[in-house]
Predict the 3D structure of the following.
Amino acid sequence: MTIRHAIYTCLLATFSTLAFEDTHQKFVEKAIAKFQATERHKWTFTYHNNEVEEGEKTEVYAQYLPQKPRGERWQLLKFNGVPPTQQQAKKFASNRENEGYSIRLTELINPNSLSLQGETSQTITFSYPVQLADLGKDAIGKLTGSVTINKSTASIEEVNIINTDEFSPVALADIRHFKLNMQFQTIKNSVLPKSTYMEMNGTFSFFIDIEETSKTTFSNYQFLELNQL
């Protein structure tokens, strides 16, 4: 009876764990799908970016107007604190139109390997191993992520990714520190970007320092009705 009881207990614990993991995976996948389903092309917003690369600072303040013709949707309002030249505004609009502002959460979040990290009455947070193609094969196994989801709305609130070891995204480049933080907000049941923050430092060719930080905030969201598009 003791052995049989032990086997039953083990099986029950295994099935419970599998059910637990399956439920969490579906919960996270549902939250990702909710973000992906948001019709971001129907929202206007302001865009504020501060970037420092190798000591050079750049500040951009712009507005996104999806109802405008292609090539005019991104309007540069200020560049490094002053109104932009016509050439700067045109170049910015063209670059941003090609880049867009889409966020591929399916690449940042791995719902197949979740571990419960923490839970409150309002949110639940999972950690997971990260594989980002943009950071190269050497980064595999050296990045860890976490995702925080609002339990009542099933909406993603925050994503964090950090490195646990040095990695080389390209030849001759070694990254000692990498951090990415993304925060989201829910407006009218639509999940929209709130802010992103990235910092990275390391070396290139053994003696050139790599030091980059970038912070972007999205604000003043306004939903466009059909007659405005």
DSSP finds three helices and ten strands in the chain.
